[in-house]
Amino acid sequence: MDQYRFFDANAPLRPYVGAGVTYAKFYKGQSTSALSGLTGGTPSNPTTISVESKFAATVEVGATYAADEHWFVDATVAHTFLKTRATLSTGQTLDMKLDPDTFALAVGYI
């Protein structure tokens, strides 16, 4: 993620904006018994689901606050623009727009 930080490097508060690329990898997609019932699956042969892993753009805004010469606090909010496709074992596909938001709060010591 590339970031642009505002203010002087020694300023106690340094807001920033950033942009980058996220790779979303989906493991072991599971369907429900309701989905199996709707799509023709049976208890012995349930409908399975696989979700395509994708690259997506991510933007962020945050700030770092230096409490003293060693301790800092960093807060970030990021948004990823993620569209992907799920494929059911029955052959049906579902296009999905997930667009997750991420919130992070970190305390660090240098």
Search tags:
110 residues, Porin, 8 strands, mainly beta, 5-stranded antiparallel beta sheet, 3-stranded antiparallel beta sheet, elongated
Task: Give a written overview of the molecule.
The protein is mainly beta. Helix content is 6%, strand content 57%. It is elongated.
Please outline the major beta sheet. Answer: 5 strands, antiparallel
State Rg: 21 Å
Structural category is mainly beta
Task: List segments where confidence is low: pLDDT < 50 over at least 5 consecutive residues.
Answer: none
Number of domains: 1
Which fold name corresponds to the CATH topology? Porin
Overall pLDDT level: 93
- CATH class category label: Mainly Beta
Order of adjacent strands in the largest pleated sheet: 1-2-4-5-8
The overall strand count is: 8
End-to-end Cα distance, whole Å, is: 21 Å
Mass-distribution shape = elongated
Q: Strand content of the residues, in percent?
A: over 45%
Q: How many alpha or pi helices?
A: 1
- Helix-residue proportion: under 10%
Order of helices and strands: EEHEEEEEE
